[in-house]
Write a structure and sequence with these properties.
This is Spore coat associated protein CotJA. The chain is an all-alpha fold. The chain has 2 helices and no strands. The termini are far apart.
C-alpha cells in the first residue's frame, strides 16, 4: 500500500435537513427554488459606473 492509499484527504459531514416550508412545483420553477425560506426577491438596482 502506498502513501496515497492509506490517507484520507477529505471527508464530508452533512447534517440531515427537514424539508419544510416548500413551494408548489409551478411556483418553485418561476422563483428558482422550492424552499420558501431561500427565496429573497431582488429589487431594481441601477448600476453606477
Amino acid at each position: 500500500m502506498n502513501k496515497c492509499e492509506k490517507n484520507d484527504y477529505a471527508k464530508a459531514f452533512i447534517v440531515l435537513q427537514v424539508y419544510e416550508n416548500l413551494l408548489n412545483p409551478t411556483t418553485a420553477l418561476k422563483l428558482g427554488t422550492i424552499f420558501k425560506d431561500l427565496y429573497r426577491p431582488y429589487g431594481k438596482h441601477h448600476k453606477k459606473f
